[in-house]
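[09:14] KT: can someone run the structure on this one? pasting the chain below
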Amino acid sequence: MEQTSFVEVEIAVIGLLVLAIFVGIVTKRLRVPYTVGLVLFGLAITPLTHWEIDLGGEVILALLVPPLVFEAAFHIKFEQLQRDLGLILLLAVPGVLLTTWMVGWMLSVSMPSLSYPLALVFGALVSATDPVAVVALFRALGAPKRLQILLEGESLFNDGTAIVVFNLVLAQALAGHGSLDLGEAVIQFIEVAGGGLFIGLALGLLVSVVIHRVDDHLIETTLTTVLAYGAYLVAEHFFHVSGVLAVVMAGLVNGNVGPKGMSPTTRLTLLNFWEYAAFLANTFVFLLIGLQVDLPLMWAHRWEVLQAIAAVLLTRFVLVFGLSLFYRRALPMRWAVVLFWGGLRGAISLALALGLPYALGPERDTLQALAFGVVLFTLLVQGLTIQPLIRYLGLVGHAEEEEEFLRLRGRLHAARAAFERIRSLYERGLLTEASYRVIRPALEQRQQRLQRALEELLRRNPTLGMEELHLAQQEALQAQRMALHDLFIAGLVPEDVYATLISELDQALVEQDVPPWPGWGLRRSENEPPIVALLNVVVQEDDLPKVIAGLAAVGVPVIDLEAQGGFMQRRRHVLLVPVPQGQLAAILQVLENTCQERMDWAWRPWSPRFPIPIPRRVVVGGASVFIFPVERYEEV
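[09:31] RB: done, structure tokens below
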């Protein structure tokens, strides 16, 4: 019996993965968000299958949520989070409380059959956001990084906050209390949330210290896996505090402190492993949303579902636009609109809805129907319309220029293919010389026109070519890696030499150095201003991508010379920057905005007082600029 049960589980898992592969291919062709496609496909196949996948909320929270939360937290840097930490915490703590109360109050008024305590339970249940589809879209479209951090940061912290508040109001509802004891609730909230954050901090630092002492990429990757699931397990089952917040803090600490003691190979392995782990968890979560949603139950409560959707949208509107008024840094109105419409609900809301106790009686079905309706609406309606909204608001940088770049590149590729085909026919004797002489000049002229148009577009918008250069660099490094692997397998390279060479390539792959803008390879047009000065700029390695992108945005190319030295022997870069006439002020402003001092982590050395290496905060960053006037400039 146990063997049969295991086989059934194995078949179900493999079946879901096969479906996910199919959905991934289809959604990429249709340009639909992958997560939305999973939900739609799950809804479509549910009536056609006899699968009985009955997963409780605890399984989703304990098995699928930790890798999602850890991966997101691991990739967020402290300095990125610190800039808007005030607004993120406003949305994640007071925002969750406001959502719980406001949604609960509106539903208790509009639905007399739903008691106020249970309405509060529903408000807490839908207070957690899940912007996976939106963040993936941001990355694809090139939306502002700060806006992405706002959405991700809010989701990371309000997931744990929402679960804590949900458990508090659910306990009150089951106990039959009509109202919360505010003082006791605040104390419990601080204990549960603060305890989770403390455990995550302690475990994150502990694992980072161990990683610093270990030099094995497989063991170090395993340590992060133990940290992600162990933080949740220790917090929830041993200390009875917030497991999700423990995972959030563990991921943040390990992602910021841990890499300082990792080898390049370990960092590359971690990036690939957690990217796949999060993809796999997202796949199961959103497929399960489509498979678990009870459409007949939703239809039976369709009017209540519409009221719940309206309450959630109105609350989100008040939350984003209201709390942003109290934030000291001005939030652009366009960003506020995206934050409002991008507040999707997903895994946490589904898990909490599925985990509602049967002791709630018939109202359990009502709450589940409302939750399923809100989750589906946000994923399908908001998830499918967020891309047109972002484009309409103009948050996609150089959208028209990007399309023009792709069109020109496609036309140039087609023109070259046509020329090669005609030349091949002529060389094989299948085309007469007279015809070839007539056709060849036209094809060559077309290639030259397209090449000039492409170069002119890159001069006007230099960032367009940087992604292509970056991909080409990555492909070149991967090709070298595969060539070394073939030599090692053939026994032509000893293991120690192979490990050294692979480590060098992994270092370049992990750093993802942005290639200098290709402007040095493009001849300047006659109407462009002359070069009047040359800047010698020394920047920290962490600032390099922002500096190059910022200079590219104002049309200035750079030459990057890597160096090392100074405080902590940190890697630095010396940039040679030509200054066109009239652009010195703009270039210096870019450097001021992108090269800032920041707090970083260094390892305190071993000593009798400190028996283990403890990370300490230090100030690094900034830039040194030397200006050299150019007496004569000419194109060669």
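[09:33] KT: thanks! Confidence is low (pLDDT under 50) at residues 514-523.
[09:34] RB: yep, looked fine to me
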